[in-house]
Design goal:
Length: about 650
Amino acid sequence: MLAGETGCDAEVTDMDRLEADISAGGVNGRSRLVVYALPDVSGRVDEDPLVALEALRPHADRLVVVTTGDLDVGSRERLCATADDLIHYTRRGFSRSLYGHAVDASARHMAASEIVLTGASWFAPREVSENTLAGVFDEMATSSADVWELVEQTGSLVRDFGPQGFPLREEPYLWLALRGAGIRSSFWSAADPSPAAARASAIGLSTGSLFSVSQTASPDPVLLQVPWLLSQGLPVLPKRPFVQYPPFLEQHAVIGKEILAVAAATGFDTDRILAALTRSVPAKALNTNLGLLDVIPSRNDAPASASARGRSARTAPRILVVMHVTDMASGTDALRRLLLLPEGFDLLITTTDGSRAARLARLVEDILAGHVGSREVRVAPVNRGRDMSALFIASRDVLLAGEHDLLLRLYCRPMGSKTRVVRHYFRRYQFENLLASRDHVARVLRMFEEEPGLGMVFPPMIHIGFQTLGRGWGEFRDGAVRLARRLGVRVPLDVVSPLAPFGGMFFARPGAIEPLARVRWTYREYEGSSDPGMGDLARVQVRMLTTVAAANGYHARTVLTPEHAAISHTSLEFKADEISSTTRGYPVDRIQLLHRAGPTGRGGVVGLSRMYLRLNHPLLASVVLPAMAAAERGFMLLRDRRARWRVALSRFNRKGASR
């Protein structure tokens, strides 16, 4: 697969062609080769791998980077500025056999006496200098082992969750150093995800490590023992605990929030880590793995960080409130709650009726006089794109003006299809979790101050009075895939439900939703005639807000008041308990069982028969179930047609009787 060697300014022209980009320069007399694997690049390379390469550079006589996927020109140049060789595959995916090609390419330029195989399976420390990884290389020098690891692994607990969006993939080595017989053996370049130490020992090679199994007392310490490893001086942060399927991590009590806190205390840049994870892990899964839900106490007594105090002393955030109001009662409540914001915010209200616009303008003066800065009420077309067209068309100029630091989006609408009790709870849930009190709002604003990469804040997906659990995408996931392709967004999507502000209300940095605002949407697109495959564009957009923000490195947090946290948690706990009562094992096992069984449909004998076939006779199910589905669609079509004929005949008879 090795096709040739060219300069770092060459372009990749063949999907199956390998390019080795060799920069000029000689070997300084030593013979250490470091190969860093960076798989599945989606155009732009994140900041963290570049920092990792800077940390490796002082200790490598030749530094080789192997990438797969798409690599933009800017990232290519930045990689070439640090590495000696850049080997780029345009296909996606990764195999450890690629290490062998990199070593072969470098053999033409140096005879390595030591090879270090590593890659984007760890996060780099905050501060990078010549001494950042010096301790690791010094420890390596004291060992005469043929194969030396940073952390010894005797097994891997990671499992395949492909249907859930987390397939088992071959990962770059965390850190594998080879000498003598270790280099001459080919075990390290085999496409084999099993632990390296076990494979090396099986062929008679001597092994060593900085952290041994006897110390960690775990077969998979880079999953289970990361806080302890960091406390003992591990200079890199393994990615494994952050990027797995959430129920699997829950089974093993791997708490990402705790690990991230330990990492911050031991010198890692959590902002940089969050930016990298945001682009590579589905938003809802990341929200779960890192515990990015904040329960804001009734009284905000938490001290601000030193950096946040410094920023606050310089300037207060410029806030823009953009409201879409089609229900006056809800809109009046929202206007009163805006008194909880710091004075001087700007306000833009959109609505669908001129007389309502006049009433809203008067209410703004009555309620917010002296509290609000600029204010404007605009009339948008009726029932075309709901709140999203009002945001991205009617308010587009204000969103893109660049005059504000934060955006507060409120949506006040009637809910005629819901009971009064459900409507009441929905409004409480949205308004109170965003605008409960001055202290509550101050804490949300402080979150944005303390986290430069925080893009959005909103309440978690509502599940009381609504059927959103298990069906957050509804029928709009295909439209989300099409929208992501249109915007060039390559962040993976959650499979079951997205992390989204389903009530249409959120705090955000304007830059987080800017990619959607920059598109010149038309009202015709919101009616569905422009792109029928998109479905309901407004509902697709609200489900894609966090994913679009993630593409720019912005993560999202969810917030609850203590009261709503108590209501939500007890309700979820009871529902999960009831749903789990008929299946055995950990939740991750129950989930896999139910996913294999598939949808219940309308239940009854037919639905249970489908599930039985999927579980016990998958080959037969692949033949029978499509035929059953076609027959069911035909039956439903015939039934609907008969119903329409009955309605038409009834109308004809009524007209005849009236004559």
